[in-house]
Specification:
The chain is mostly beta strands and about 100 residues long. It has a single domain, classed as Alpha-Beta Plaits (2-Layer Sandwich). The protein has two helices and five strands, in the order E-H-E-E-E-H-E. The protein has helices at about 30-35, 85-90, and strands at about 15-20, 40-45, 50-55, 70-75, 95-100. A three-stranded antiparallel β-sheet has the order 3-2-4, with no helix packed on it. It has a two-stranded antiparallel ribbon with strand order 1-5. The longest helix is centred in the N-terminal third of the chain and has 5 residues, at about 30-35. It is elongated and about 55 Å long. The protein starts with 15 loop residues before the first strand and ends in a 6-residue tail after the last strand. This is Ferredoxin III. InterPro entries: 4Fe4S_Fe-S-bd (IPR017896), 4Fe4S_Fe_S_CS (IPR017900), FdIII_4_nif (IPR014283), Fe-S_Ferredoxin (IPR050572). Ferredoxins are iron-sulfur proteins that transfer electrons in a wide variety of metabolic reactions. Its cofactor is [4Fe-4S] cluster.
């Protein structure tokens, strides 16, 4: 199959879009968030039972003492341009990417 995506020099390229982050593996380091210019994911708080408490609003946010750890959550997948920068900086390899030709619109 020929890619419909090309770079500036005309080379074919297949973007791979971020679709999920494995919450049990993610350490919430924030590297992927810092490298992403599209705000595809955000840091969320998680309690002892593994339930997501909500988006983190800052370092002082402890979710009324319920916070156990932080994880990244894909909350705006449609913003992803498929550059793959987030996967290159992730120390835990906890992200799932799908090639553009495999994504259902």
């Amino acid at each position: 199959m020929t890619s419909a995506f090309v770079t500036r020099d005309g080379s074919t390229w297949m973007p791979e879009y971020l679709t999920a982050i494995e919450g049990t593996t993610c350490i919430g380091c924030g590297r992927c968030f810092k490298i992403c210019s599209r705000e595809v994911m955000h840091l969320y708080g998680v309690d002892d039972a593994g339930e997501i408490l909500g988006i983190s609003k800052g370092q002082d946010d402890d979710f009324d003492g319920e916070l156990n750890r932080m994880v990244m959550v894909v909350d705006h997948a449609g913003r992803c341009v498929g550059c793959g920068a987030c996967s290159r900086v992730c120390p835990k390899n906890c992200q799932t990417h799908i090639a553009a030709d495999k994504v259902v619109a």
